[in-house]
Amino acid sequence: MSPIPSADQLSRIRPSATAPELLRNFCIIAHIDHGKSTLADRMLQLTGVVDARSMRAQYLDRMDIERERGITIKSQAVRMPWAVVDTSGGSTPYALNMIDTPGHVDFTYEVSRSLAACEGAVLLVDAAQGIEAQTLANLYLAMENDLTIIPVLNKIDLPAAQPEKYADEIAGLVGGDPEDVLRVSGKTGAGVLELLDRIVERVPAPGGDPDAPARAMIFDSVYDTYRGVVTYVRVVDGQLSPRERIVMMSTRATHELLEIGVISPEPIPTGGLGIGEVGYLITGVKDVRQSKVGDTVTNASKPAETALAEYHDPRPMVFSGLYPIDGSDYPLLRDALDKLKLNDAALHYEPETSVALGFGFRVGFLGLLHLEIVRERLEREFNLDLISTAPNVVYEVTLEDRSVLTVTNPSEFPGGKIVEVREPIVKATILAPSEFIGSIMELCQERRGTMQGMDYLSADRVELRYVLPLAEIVFDFFDQLKSKTRGYASLDYEPSGEQAADLVKVDILLQGEQVDAFSSIVHKDKAYAYGVMMTGKLRELIPRQQFEVPIQAAIGARVIARETIRAMRKDVLAKCYGGDITRKRKLLEKQKEGKKRMKTIGRVDVPQEAFIAALSSDASGGKDTKDKK
After folding, report:
1. Do residues 368 and 318 lie in contact, with contact meaning Cβ atoms separated by under 8 Å?
2. Per the count of CB atoms within 10 A, which of 12, 225, 279, 549 is most buried?
3. What are residue 24's phi and psi, to 5 degrees?
4. pTM
């Protein structure tokens, strides 16, 4: 049962404060499945912004995909009133701006933007699982932003919870006393009131100059069919009021503010936003390119001289081609990507043409789960049928004339003499029980990993640090890691430059003709295995022809694997129910000559279904897609 606010708790709810000293901006950061959204639910209930009738589990997860998969994909900001009772019996009303963030490594960019809009962070750790890889990654992000960290142990109601053990672990990580680590349960509501009071006490009030020209940072946007672009901002200096004209400082576009307000948790129009407040702006603009995440909003009549520091654009980690199954949907796909980029600033795309699949886009993603979610959102929200090609990474190829070529697609790989091929590498952090060290090291060595170090966080938990080629981990590395550690390992990675590698392009030939769509860039040691796998798969997928069709895998001019699709044969001897054997042999020889002639002029048409089956990325990379209890 979800807790219902008591009369005493409801008496602490007051109208929202707007003075900067009465504001507290914070976010909840944690590893996947540590209960961020469940804790956010309890806060919404206990502060009274969502009543018992409207309440539902994971209230801030608005998308169907989030609710189906049990993960948070988009950060959600919400304003909550909270009154702190003092010793004399009086109370002071505060306004808490909370941002619930995703926990998966593929959505770290969402977390980094949320941190830039806050002064404090609640670091949530599962009392039954302890610190995991993304916990560390998010903690370091918060420390880089100079945020006040409030360590909290969640799920203390579970029978497997070990709060004392993990409180020591957290205290050793963030500094301080294990007794300072709060114990809460997002499910039952235990300890949540104390957490709200601790946030008011520890998180500093936002700074800024109320008399300076208005400056507000755009940290998110969404497209509304009826109202146009809805922009989410955090005000740093000055004040924004409705019906005034505003300027986007990077594009110099000028708009009139039709509506301004706060999210609590539904949009509520207000008389303006002051220093430190988080809210939304509506200008009625339909052009999605005019609202850029990281841009600074200011008054048109009294503009600021300098813009706020922009967010660093995320670097795509994985590339995949997205093509509409119906070629006439190409303009719809382009518009859909434009609108989705407004809501997902980590998306990068450019037009691309494939001989086999027609017109489409080369899209850059932060990881394999990001790829899967974007494709699913495009299909659901914009009613598109798409093919996504197998994911790959970006390579830098140095040719004999010392020119450097950037290759995002195997079809761009040059055929001349190559001096060096450089591939992206990542620093990976793996946290797991110490009994699985051998299995993890074996897996990382198979994937061409180099060990950087190993530390014991406690007697039975170990942190392994590896440098790995990105191409080796984007497809099924996480899946293998989970299976080798019975689901206990956690992974986090970040880009770490490039390294030279012995990479080759494997081409697939159908009847001697190269099919670009099936080419792949792989390590020399794994080229044979890829060639055998692809030729075997195509032999099953391509229908038999009237003539024999060879399928070959080749590196340059050297064939490394071959399969043959046998010809369909007509029974020309059916009419020969008797007579001399020479008559039968003559018919068979005539058929053989016809097959030979047909082979020289025949073309192999690969059906669309075969392309889809051979190219589609049908594996999700085994990503850990749980984010709730």
Report:
1. yes
2. 279
3. -135, 120
4. 0.68
